[in-house]
Amino acid sequence: MKAKKVVSLLMAGAMALSMAACGSTASNSGSSSSGSSSKSTSTSSSKSGGKTVGISMPTKSLERWNRDGSYLKKQFESKGYKVELTYSDNKSAQQNNDIEGLIADKVDVLVVAAIDGEALSQVLGEAKDANIPVISYDRLIMNTDSISYYVSFDNYKVGQLQGNYIKDQLKLDSAGSKKYTIEMTGGDPADNNAPFFFKGAMDVLQPYIDKGVLTVPSGQTKFNQCATDRWDTSTAMKRMQNILGSYYSGGKQLDAALCSNDSTALGVTKAIESDYAGKNKVLITGQDGDEPNLKNIVDGKQSMTVYKAVANEAVVTLDLAIQIMDGKKPDASLIKSSGWKFDCAYDTKSYDNGKGIVPSYLLTPEVVTKDNMDKLLVDTGYYKKGSDGYLKAVG
Ligand code: BGC
Known about the structure:
Elements: H1 11-15, E1 19-20, E2 39-41, E3 52-57, H2 63-78, E4 82-87, H3 92-104, E5 109-112, H4 121-129, E6 134-137, E7 147-153, H5 155-169, E8 180-185, H6 193-211, E9 214-215, H7 223-226, H8 233-247, E10 256-259, H9 262-275, E11 283-284, H10 291-298, E12 305-307, H11 310-325, H12 333-338, E13 344-347, E14 360-363, E15 366-368, H13 373-378, E16 383-385, E17 391-393
Parallel strand pairs: 3-4, 3-5, 5-6, 6-7, 7-14, 8-9, 8-10, 10-11
Antiparallel strand pairs: 1-13, 2-4, 12-15, 13-14, 16-17
Beta-D-glucopyranose (BGC) binds at residues 62, 64, 138-139, 187, 191, 193, 231, 261, 263, 287-288, 308.
Signal peptide: 1-20
Subcellular location: Cell envelope
GO molecular function: carbohydrate binding
């Protein structure tokens, strides 16, 4: 496990967002795939003045980034921009090289979802020297003054939704003398989002742990004890198998498994299938709406996921990037002028990357369960339901 990164979290600020309801069309149609190579390039019409957008995504091995890359590419191309899209196989050194390549290609703006939020200061300094503005996409890039804006979801709220789901399902407020058990699985310590998710959930759950209503047999309640390098499914699975072997082998019941996202939930679900002797249904949380997890929700193996409409994240990124490329200085007014039809807040308090506050556009996450899945994911056009009853992302 990596040493804990120093993150400047202004959680109080995260709670004090000035939410603005906005209206425009949420595009949810993306091109189908960015192909198997790590870089793809497109051509465009002249509307954009021949400008090129460089997009650096972390990896294809975590499902959502395939959707992000595809939606972003489609959005920018629809306005006539050229797109260079790279995937860096979850390797930080490779992401540095890929971004250097985009700078050498003289892209007009960079959109970067960092693998390691602390490892890009130097290469983004080169982008700044070359006058290329950078949008930190979904994950905040730390310790650099080279990024102009941050586009993401309300990451603290993602965790709150997970924590509240567990609280409500276990009816912790009316538990009386009943006690429930829980184990936690967090995300990648190199990802600045991961502690936000964890803290959002723990701020809900910790009071019940303190009261003794919730117990954690492994004793692992700190982010660094629960973190999962690179959000890796098998890493999460092995850790949970160890916990089950060490603390639940004598027939102890596990009631809930807080998992910060779907790739870790997948590992935890596998561990429970293979190594848990209890017969109860363990509550398992997630985030993203990855296809295997939505299948598990339909099959009753995972309880919920926090869905983030990354199609809308791409729309915000497009409108923001256009203003930046046009030499404007976007602020809260972008929300109104763009006319988005989804909630988005402009936040100038919550995200400090160690060099100062980064102005942020934050979208709103939603809880998806078996009961509202069709309404929130299929009726909105983000997914299609197959004849087998399972959902497939449209993207
Ligand atoms: C994203 C999550 C995702 C995780 C792993 C985070 O930065 O916000 O949506 O589950 O990375 O890909």
